[in-house]
Amino acid sequence: MGFAMLASAVLTLLSVFIHNFHLLIAVSFVKGAILSGVTAVALAYLSEEVSLNALGLAISLYLSGNAIGGMAGRIVVMLIAGWANWRWAAAFVGVSSLILGLFFMKRLPASKHFMPLPVNIGQKWQQMGIFFRQPVIVFIYLAAFLLMGGFVSIYNYTGFHLEEPPFSLPHYVIACIFLMYTLGVSGTMVAGRLSDKIAPAKLIRFFIPATAVGLLLMLISQLVVFIGGLGIFTFSFFGTHTLASRIVSQEAKEGKSSATSLYWLFYYAGSAIIGTATGVVLTGWGWATFIFSLLLLVIAGFLLVFRAGRE
Length: 311
Hints:
The protein is mostly helical. The protein contains twelve helices and no strands.
């Protein structure tokens, strides 16, 4: 995890000096692959090192960190890029990530329950194949693909919508919408604590419909209502993500790192594929059609999770 954090920080700093678009995309691709060394391992680390009674809280704290990082990154980058340019923003992210990566490596407790084993690629593929034969895990993977795609779509394109009439907001005000990630932190904490008392498979069925309510409120062209809808959507999504992560972690009796890495694969594949495709929808058919397309994703995700809970 430490190597992944430091390497991604160096690549971010390197991107500041790149002027070829295709090379910039290639470096970003490599950085994304390296960062999987954090996302694929962190939940497995927590599952091995943290007591089961506190696992829900531990996962929610980890995902809260994701939310805070996402919020801080988006706000700072948008402000710096608006006032200067994206290269200064990338430099800030690279330097701060390098400092945090060094702090992480110095302070993270060593594993006490990890059992090192020889890496066998064939065995890993076989293990992943076993997960794909477990309906509960497969349904959660697919739901993560759809719901993360919807979440990223909202935060990718809401800024463009708020720049246009009837809102017509300046960039430094639009940057403040990412403060909604603080509600995402609340969502992870609430879901994490509740999941220590209520089965995550049951609890998640209440969080997903709430994301649909948030989306519907974002159809209303009144700023207070719109921001309220965004808050409900963000709170509910992060709660859903926390619960889905815990379900996968609990269902995978062996090979937890493989199970969580597949979860993150589907999660970020939804971010990339759906996050791009919905931009085409917004450009071609407008905000209302864009929101209704996301509602379809949420409904499909709910049906998958509902089916998972019956297995």
